[in-house]
Write the structure tokens for this entry.
Amino acid sequence: SAVISQKPSRDICQRGTSLTIQCQVDSQVTMMFWYRQQPGQSLTLIATANQGSEATYESGFVIDKFPISRPNLTFSTLTVSNMSPEDSSIYLCSALGLAGAPPGELFFGEGSRLTVL
Amino acid sequence: GEDVEQSLFLSVREGDSSVINCTYTDSSSTYLYWYKQEPGAGLQLLTYIFSNMDMKQDQRLTVLLNKKDKHLSLRIADTQTGDSAIYFCAEIFNAGNMLTFGGGTRLMVKP
């Protein structure tokens, strides 16, 4: 299995500020993703973090609001820019493609809970 | 587009069996999954089934797949309080890497 570490685990932020979440995987993985989980709701895929190139964003998410980096196979960052209370959510990093794992097994970090005041 | 639906909530007594249901719309699903999310934690893969199977058993867990009706279920035998969590159904399509998650079913186990 893979261990995914995210930080910060939680933060309280002021409206208009930006926050960067870091994600570190302890093994090389093929793909990394960022999800958002709003209270009481399912996971929504924000984007696929591509190593060395621009992330691939899902409908409704744009690079200016959620810049993503993935400089290598085991690390990625997600920035939530110009935050508003609507951005209050749990942001989850996940990874796919660990050698020996079942097909489609996503490993998840514990999430970063952001509260925007 | 793809759609995966689950009931929101299930409550059972400790020792009873729990059955969590999921329906999906895309007939080209290749793998279907059950993920478990405990409070304050990320999701963890519980079990999965390949689309050419109709049943998979793993200790207390039984997964049933009805491809005709596009219905997936997870049965937990002898449910324990430690099984209290949110259970997500998910599917993946032909050669794809994107999982589509259902809304999650919150299982509450009463002692």
Notes: Chain A touches chain B at residues 4, 30-31, 41-43, 45, 48, 92, 94, 96-97, 102-106, 108-111 (CB under 8 Å). The longest strand of chain A covers residues 89-96. Chain A is about 0% helix and 50% strand. The radius of gyration of chain A is 13 Å.
